[in-house]
């Protein structure tokens, strides 16, 4: 892993994962965090709830970079 920076802290309403990722700051996948109690950093975020999640594993990308996590989107 070799990101410019990373912020493993909890999700913050005042500074969402989306906002951090847009500043090139990796955040933890919130699905891994809540479901598996493991820390896995990501630079992908859900366009609906603004939480970070792992690309390909817990969500889908409906073209044009708009992503949805498992919590927000339909099951693949
Ligand atoms: Zn994950
Ligand atoms: Zn979501």
Structural class designation: alpha+beta
Helix count from the secondary structure assignment: 2
Hetero ligands: zinc ion
CA-based gyration radius = 11 Å
Beta strands, count: 5
Q: Describe it for me?
A:
It is a single chain. The chain is α+β, with helices and mostly antiparallel strands and 76 residues long. The protein has one domain. The chain is 17% helix and 18% strand. The chain is built from two helices and five strands. Strands 1-2-3 form a three-stranded mixed β-sheet. A two-stranded antiparallel ribbon has the order 4-5. The protein is globular and about 30 Å long. The N and C termini lie far apart (27 Å). It binds zinc ion (2 copies). The site of one zinc ion has 8 residues, from α2.
Throw out a few tags for this protein.
76 residues, 3-stranded mixed beta sheet, two-stranded antiparallel sheet, 2 helices, 5 strands, binds zinc ion
Write the layout of secondary structure elements.
Layout: E1 5-6, H1 17-22, E2 25-28, H2 30-36, E3 41-42, E4 59-61, E5 67-69
Parallel strand pairs: 1-2
Antiparallel strand pairs: 2-3, 4-5
The structure holds zinc ion (2 copies).
One zinc ion is lined by residues 46, 48-49, 51, 68-69, 71-72.
